[in-house]
Specification:
single chain, mainly beta, four-stranded antiparallel beta sheet, globular
Length: about 120
Amino acid sequence: VQLVESGGGSVQAGGSLRLSCTASGYTYSSYCMGWFRQAPEKEVEGVAAIYSTGSSTYYLDSSKGRFSISRDNAENAVYLQMNDLRPDDTATYYCAAGRSCSEDQERYTYWGQGTQVTVS
């Protein structure tokens, strides 16, 4: 099983990034896909998750209206479009796969290696 994130980078405040995560090695369409993030010296926090049906949920009040999660089951991919980025969005972003969507990272079975997002 492999989850590979991409799309991170350094942007100025107000900019946008689109994170991608491609999955392999399991039945992708059966799993909920989530995005999490971890800022320096902070705990991992859930950002958003999307069911196999395409229904999504957002966990961070600060991201609502700015972030959008989507998935393409044919491509085994999940995306996180991040607009109007702020310095406090700086973190390592991880995608994860789990049998059910949850804000609790313990509910996810598979994890990517993370991609760094820096907003200045």
